[in-house]
Amino acid sequence: MITLLTGENTFETSEAAKALVSSFDGRAEHIDGSGVELKGLPDLLMGSTLFAEQRLVIIKDLSQNSSVWEKLPEWLSRISDDIHVVLVDAKPDKRTSAYKAVKAAATIREFPAWSDRDSAKAEQWVLQRATKAGVGLDAKLARYLVMRVGVDQWLLASAIDKLALLDTVTQTALEEVIDANPSENIFQLFETALTGRRDKVAEALRTLELQEDPYATFALLSSQVFSLAAVTFDADGGAVKDFAIHPYVASKLTSQSKRLGKKNVADIVRIFAQTDADMKRSKAEPWLLIERTLYSLPT
Prior knowledge:
alpha/beta, 299 residues, elongated, single chain, Rossmann fold, Helicase, Ruva Protein, domain 3, 5 strands, 15 helices, 59% helix
């Protein structure tokens, strides 16, 4: 029997492999595919042991071992019925004959990476995992956690583990123990700039300078401007879905949009476009340009 666990969502592929191990009545064999030699394939795929009638062999990233991967089709039909071979591979080259042979012979389970469009799915997953862990999260806190951390399941699972240590989970307590991802820090910076609090903007920028790249920071700020413009000039109400804007962020930006008005939002877009051009021409030190831009926003 052959199973292929594939996709860039490494958390879910890992969980699927763990589930197979848990349901197996025996000791699973974990193999690093990069270290497999061609001469070792018979023992992996056909050999039996003195201690077990059934075997579960989990091989990770075998497709990265090109010499063995290319020869794998010759061995697929020889795999013993007593052996369950599980190939764990995030991104095998689907153009290769080896992959096509595996596809024809294996049960394939695909786990695509989540994107911002999957925020609702992530919120439901957080609620379910939190319940299993005995963490008291409601829908509002689950949404806030996803907004703060992002949709990366490894980070969300780690966050839930930290929250499980608290007696009571509130938004304030969550903020104290869960680090915000860069996008959340940038969103807070942008929101602060729109309220004209220069002292807070300067303080946030000094912190970001120690941790982040200025060009990456400006790109994230520009994405917030794009989202603000999308919400402001949205004719049919579909911008949140079309541009995968997180509902929490959309609600915040909608409030800012109503307060600022279309003219001011258009001016913000123009200011950022000018800064983008200035950064490309290296007219000044990038952090200085970012600071000047945030100070010049209409409030």
